[in-house]
C-alpha cells in the first residue's frame, strides 16, 4: 500500500510574515502524525526560518530546485548539501517552469536528480506535456523521454525511491485541471513504463498529480488508482485549502 503524499509548491510567493503565518497554521492543524506525507516547499530565502517552525511536527520541508553542482564558483546556485544542512528532506526537480522558463533539459534535470540523491534528499521529479504536445499526439513520447532520462542516469530503484509528479503544463496555474480520467491515464502510463524495467519497484513509486488541483477537486483526483497525492501550487498558499487537500489524501 502506497502512503499518499501532498507537497505544496509556494513558487516565488510570500513575505517573511506571511510565510510564518502559513506555516504556523499548517503545523497546528496537521499534527505530529498525519496519515499522508505533508511537505511544503517555500522559496530558498524562507527555508531556514520555516525549518525551525516545522521541527518536530508532521510537516516536512522541501526546496523548489537545486544546483547540479556540489560547491564552488556558481553564483546564485544552491547545492544539495546546503539544502540538507538547513533541514530539507525533499527537493522539486524539473518543474515545468524550470524546464520552459530557464531552459532546463532532460540532461540537466537528470544531473540534478543524481546530485540530490547523493546528498540524501528525496527528489520530487516533475514530468508533463504541453498542450501542443498533447494535441499533436506526442504526449506519451514526451513523458517517456523525461522518465527514461532519469531512469538511465539514476537507475530504476532510485527513481522508485523518489516521488514523481505528473504535471501537464497546460494545467499549471491555469485553472484547467486534467480530468481524473486524463490524469489516471498518464499516471498508469508512467507506472507501466517503469514496470517494464522493474514491476515490483513500479508498484511502490508514488506518482502525484499537479495542475490546478484544489480543495474542490482533490478528493476525486486522489481517488484514482494510480494517483498517490498531489503537487499543489496556488492552493498551497491558503492554509484552509491546503489542509482540505491534505485531508483528501489521508
Ligand atoms: C505547481 O506549481 O507545481 C502547480 C501544480 O501549480 P498550480 O497548482 O497552481 O497549478
CATH architectural type: Alpha-Beta Barrel
- List the ligand species: phosphoenolpyruvate
Task: Report the uncertain regions.
Answer: none
What is the CATH first-level class name?
Alpha Beta
What structural category do the secondary elements indicate? alpha/beta
- How many discrete structural domains? 1
Number of strands: 8
What is the number of helices? 12
Distance between the termini: 13 Å
Overview of the structural elements:
The chain has a single domain, classed as Aldolase class I (TIM Barrel, Alpha-Beta Barrel). The mean pLDDT is 97. The relative contact order is 0.15. The chain has 250 residues and is an alpha/beta fold. The chain has an 8-stranded parallel sheet with strand order 7-6-5-4-3-2-1-8. It contains 12 helices and 8 strands. The protein is 46% helix and 15% strand. β3, α3 (80-85) and β4 form a beta-alpha-beta unit. α1 runs parallel beside α12 (239-249).
Question: Can I get a quick summary?
Answer:
The protein has 250 residues and is α/β, with parallel strands linked by helices.
Write the layout of secondary structure elements.
Blueprint: E1 5-9, H1 16-30, E2 37-41, H2 44-54, E3 59-63, H3 80-85, E4 90-93, H4 96-101, H5 106-118, E5 122-127, H6 131-135, H7 139-154, H8 156-161, E6 163-166, H9 180-195, H10 199-204, E7 206-209, H11 218-222, E8 229-232, H12 239-249
Parallel strand pairs: 1-2, 1-8, 2-3, 3-4, 4-5, 5-6, 6-7
Amino acid at each position: 500500500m502506497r502512503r499518499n503524499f501532498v507537497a505544496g509548491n509556494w513558487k516565488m510567493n510570500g513575505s517573511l510574515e506571511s510565510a510564518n503565518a502559513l506555516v504556523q497554521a499548517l503545523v497546528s492543524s496537521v499534527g505530529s502524525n498525519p496519515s499522508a506525507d505533508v511537505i511544503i516547499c517555500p522559496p530558498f530565502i524562507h527555508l531556514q526560518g520555516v525549518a525551525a517552525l516545522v521541527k518536530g511536527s508532521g510537516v516536512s520541508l522541501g526546496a523548489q530546485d537545486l544546483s547540479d553542482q556540489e560547491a564552488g564558483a556558481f553564483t546564485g546556485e544552491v547545492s544539495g548539501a546546503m539544502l540538507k544542512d538547513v533541514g530539507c528532506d525533499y527537493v522539486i526537480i524539473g518543474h515545468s517552469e524550470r524546464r520552459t522558463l530557464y531552459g532546463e533539459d532532460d540532461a540537466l534535470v537528470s544531473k540534478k536528480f543524481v546530485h540530490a540523491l547523493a546528498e540524501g534528499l528525496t527528489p520530487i521529479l516533475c514530468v508533463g506535456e504541453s498542450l501542443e504536445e498533447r494535441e499533436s499526439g506526442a504526449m506519451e513520447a514526451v513523458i517517456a523521454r523525461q522518465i527514461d532520462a532519469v531512469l538511465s542516469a539514476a537507475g530504476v530503484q532510485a527513481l522508485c525511491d523518489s516521488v514523481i509528479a505528473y504535471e501537464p503544463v497546460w494545467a499549471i496555474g491555469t485553472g484547467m485541471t486534467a480530468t481524473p480520467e486524463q490524469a489516471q491515464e498518464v499516471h498508469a502510463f508512467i507506472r507501466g513504463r517503469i514496470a517494464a524495467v522493474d514491476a515490483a519497484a513500479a508498484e511502490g513509486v508514488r506518482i502525484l498529480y499537479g495542475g490546478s488541483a484544489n480543495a474542490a477537486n482533490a478528493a476525486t483526483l486522489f481517488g484514482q488508482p494510480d494517483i498517490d497525492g498531489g503537487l499543489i501550487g496556488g492552493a498551497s498558499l491558503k492554509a484552509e485549502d491546503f489542509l482540505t487537500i491534505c485531508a483528501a489524501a489521508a
